[in-house]
Amino acid sequence: MKPGDRINEAELARRFGISRNPIREAISGLLQRGFLVSEPRRGAFMRSFTAKDVDDVFSFRICVETFAIRQAMPMMDPAARAEFTAIVDHMIEAAKAGDVGAVRHLDVLLHRRLCERSRNRQTLRAHEAIDTEMQMLMASVDLFAESLIDGASAHVPIAEAIMGGDPEKVVAALTAHIEQTWRHARAFYEELERAEAAASKTRRKRSADPGVHPIDPSEEEIP
User: Fold this and answer.
1) Higher per-residue pLDDT: 172 or 101
2) What CATH architecture is 51-187?
């Protein structure tokens, strides 16, 4: 599901083969955590994001993961560091096979393992919270529109820095990688906001002109 999509309890219950009660409990929990929004007489919807949300999520992600790196690196032996090279190698193989799902899974795994290696429960808890929001925010953004292999290969400098053993070089490589994704995501949501603003302006003009019959917003052409 993508940001802005309506949550259909009956459809989800059928899809998972369960009653509506657990679906409602899950929706209630997600509403409390801010991942869903409720509209009177319309139901629950996937939360929509803005460029400001992108900045908040990515800046906090950099804080959490660079903190994790500085904690984890002194405790990682060569075998532990080699794990990240293996993850990136598998990611590139999946990219060559055109397996987008596997690439995304391995991408998430690499970042999670960095936090797990810190052996700090609070760091991991913070990462889990931000990762959930990150996945929702990125649901509409196609990071691999140009090249799946390029997206996977962008993780190579991180793995190489980890193998080198210098925490600050890992921090630099990871920060550069996250900032690149940050720019891509921000550009996407900025364009979305411009399109929504243009559509809203068109609706206001139509409402203000008594000679123009209002139309369904879904029929409008968004620049």
Assistant:
1) 172
2) Up-down Bundle (1.20)
